[in-house]
Design brief:
three-stranded antiparallel beta sheet, 43% helix, nine-stranded antiparallel beta sheet, 385 residues
Length: 385
Amino acid sequence: MDRFSWISSNTPLNTGEELVIQQRGLRIYDGENKTNFDNGNLILTSFSLIWEDEEQQDRRIQLYLELIIRIEEQAAGFMKSAKLLLHLNSPPATKDPGPFNSSSFTYIKLSFRSGGHIEFHKLLKQQLQKKAWIQRKPKENAPSKVHRRGPGIVGIERNLEEKSRATDKTISQAFKDLDGLMEKAKEMVALADKFASKIEEKKGSITEDETILFKSYLLSVGISNPVTRETHGTGTTYHNELAKQLEIFLREQLKEAGGMMTLTDVYCRFNRARGMELVSPEDLVNASRQFESLKLPLRLRSFDSGVLVIQSSNHSDEEVIRDTRDKLFSNKCLTADELSKILGLSVMLAKERLLVTEKVGKACRDDSVEGLKFYPNFFLETPVE
């Protein structure tokens, strides 16, 4: 953060400097440490990065692009926003005063709390390759005070307004296409209701082809009547109803996944099926905690590593351990990645299987430069012939 300089809100752009993009909801980290530059607009020009506080627009800092050595992208995780990690050169001796006099880090992180990091990353890389600031630097011994100024803040606002109009036009066209899609969706919902009635009333038989067709429509349509705060209120009532709908949604999916799914996988699949009525991570966790009190056949479980999963109540650790042990004996040794391919599970769940098996003494680990591998525990047992 000691590479940033304070900049006035009425400071105009330099001659030849162009506005590239502006992104809202940016937090800046000094290395791994949070700063009080927490919620602002990040403006990218062809010369610099400008962070502006959303509430105090006279609180602005600037980082020249020529100080950036390279960029790393950090993908978003569970309840973590995507980030760009910028490795920086040492600050020049002639740098203007900034918010930090010194820093123990040689990099900063830009946290994109409102999304948009992919497009911003792409445009930032383009500007670093162009190096427009080199072409516009004044020659030595040339007059240094005769500079025409660019459009300044007014120009930035005008450019942003033009981009906003273009975006509105694109969105309007997208909604026209969406209207056509909704008409088709009505037909699919009607067909789904027909199949659901047949199942509930147990009238007639459903062929295998009809079942496949039904599943494909369900994946396309998703959950037709998602539980929302508007329809079921807030607090415990909402979470109870959400838990019931979640249990229905996961019945078949848990069977196909071997009786257990990570909470992150459930979050993605459940929200995809709900369409526009998205559920927050917090509400999903609170709903999952209601399974036991509602006597639903699901449980929220936390492994020693901190990984949260949803599993069927009839899921047996003993059976999992026995199956994992047999796979180890069959394959001599396994990594989490190899076991995940054999069982068709995520690498995270495969690793948890191996760790649980190790915990009860049915497996041994070999942690080397080649990675973490697990072997059968020949100290306690021998393979069954």
